[in-house]
Amino acid sequence: MEQSSGNKINTAVFISGRGSNLKSLIKYNNKKNSKILIKLIISNNSSAKGLIYAKKSKIKTYVTNFKNKNLSEKNLLKKLINNKINLICLAGFMKILTADFIKKFKKPILNIHPSLLPKYKGLNTHKRVIKNKEKFSGPTVHIVSSKLDSGKIILQKKVKILKYDNEKSLEKKVLKAEHKLYPKAIEKLLISL
Ligand code: GRF
User: Fold this and answer.
1) CB burial class (10 A; 0-12, 13-18, 19+) of residue 107?
2) Which fold has domain 1-107?
């Protein structure tokens, strides 16, 4: 794969809200030995809290609201091509990309999901995990395919659920694991390309 900035891979991160995974990816990006160069941060929501991390680190942003999905995706593709983006990392991005977008982008798109996929696809993960009295949960980084939370799994991290855990405490534990897992999964993916 062509990696246009030295040997780092030009990356776009897509967010919709809080942006704690974006923050951890920026931290990774800033390491000398990191394999990515975050060139673009995309949001479907102009008031996404995570956009402050983009501002702080002076990374370009692009907001498109997805009200007209086809138009938003068309404009996004142009942006991605103009910025020579070779990897997309979805990090709490709440819109579902179309099969057409995934096909036209041609390069890998990663997502992080807060459960041990294929279990607990979709929303309200932690609530369902607690309700079912699972012993373990944890994040998964996977390739985005046209089916929700179903693409090839790159890396997972098991987190133990203790008796006193509830939805909130589990979210906190899993999120902490997410922040470590995403950079590792990126490195694993890039080695395999
Ligand atoms: C994370 O739990 C991630 O796994 C899920 O959405 C949440 C985003 O959190 N896809 P943040 O915006 O990165 O803080």
Assistant:
1) middle
2) Rossmann fold (3.40.50)
